[in-house]
């Protein structure tokens, strides 16, 4: 059985989540532990059985943030005695008594077993909030059994921003919501907002908890990732903040459309036609420079590097690059993009990076190949790769030009792939 399919053989409803799966040693994508530590002056508490806590503790240790984590072990005795709620209450109180510094917020993660046992943890949070009025308690979840209806990462982004309370809105302040990495020098949106004197708030750049709470006063929330949608919808309802989802792709017209919408919503000067033409010209020059350096060198990419891998594959193909393969497990992009790519590049290889049979793949590639993303680099066994996850703060024309520079760098230089992809949480520690 082949470990890949040709795109022409696949229907749009493709989903590789069919049961038994393979977990590669590629570990750069952030998880709920990493994301929770973004909240300044907060403390994370995981309430789980020992087997679940092992991964949590190892992740935190690699992150170098063990002072930000505590655990409450759920054992068989808690189930038999029926004291799950009391164990959560007593454990949290003991943690607070022993912490050297009182946290401003407690992110308490309950697990699957709490759902199975119908634990009334909200009652415990109500008691804790009354006893510790200076601490914000928020319920978070580590429950993989809910990954289809309430996946952990989107749920966590929502819960984190539920720490924000309604506030009077500032027309010259906006939020960027749901990003693991700050958007800045490689984002067209940030450049336009800052030029217009708009204050841009981002959890990544908040220096302390009070600054984080100021995000409640922003008038508009911008999101770049679909995993942030639950948070943005919830903030629109609770806080009355407008929500503008930005398309983190590579279609020039879509970039211009999103930027124009942002400008109109905020009542600030947009990007003029002459400037747009200049941006496109500079971008095309960067693309041509990159295509010339790569020549006929094949390119492989994966969904951990960028949010729109199919759109990027189509973009690169249209610009003259030799796109050979995409590692992806579910199609989340539009049917239109899928159909265009299928019509123009039917021989494109589609690999299921979680598929059980990919473990038998003969990793490697005959000749040089440039990978965009850690998974495509690992499975192609290449040191010529762009080492990023989740777009790395790139958006718009600036983002495309930045990506072209990274592709050129990957083509001309090597990186220690086997060492880098094993670091849990790209950008953490020596990553």
Rg computed from alpha carbons, rounded to a whole number of angstroms: 23 Å
Strand content: 15-25%
Tell me, rounded to a whole number, the average pLDDT: 92
The coarse silhouette is globular
End-to-end C-alpha gap: 35 Å
Strand adjacency order, main sheet: 1-12-11-10-13-14
Total separate domains: 3
Total DSSP E strands: 14
User: Which structural class is indicated by helix and strand composition?
Assistant: alpha/beta
Unreliable spans: none
Helical stretch tally = 17
Which percent bin holds the helix content?
Answer: 40-55%
Described by strand count, sense and barrel closure, the largest sheet is: 6 strands, mixed
Describe this protein's structure.
With 431 residues, the chain is of the alpha/beta class. It folds into 3 domains: 4-22 and 287-420; 40-157, Rossmann fold, CATH 3.40.50; 170-266, Nitrogenase molybdenum iron protein domain (Rossmann fold, 3-Layer(aba) Sandwich), CATH 3.40.50.1980. Helices cover 41% and strands 16% of the residues. It contains 17 helices and 14 strands. It has helices at 32-36, 50-63, 76-81, 84-98, 112-116, 121-131, 152-161, 188-195, 209-213, 229-239, 252-266, 273-294, 309-318, 335-344, 374-380, 396-412, 417-420, and strands at 4-6, 42-48, 69-73, 105-111, 136-142, 170-177, 199-202, 218-223, 242-245, 298-302, 322-327, 349-351, 370-372, 385-386. It has a 6-stranded mixed beta sheet with strand order 1-12-11-10-13-14, sandwiched between helices. A 4-stranded parallel beta sheet has the order 3-2-4-5, sandwiched between helices. The protein has a 4-stranded parallel beta sheet with strand order 7-6-8-9, with helices on both faces. Helix 10 (229-239) links the parallel strand 8 and strand 9. Helix 4 (84-98) packs parallel to helix 6 and helix 12 (273-294) runs parallel beside helix 16 (396-412). It is globular. The mean pLDDT is 92.
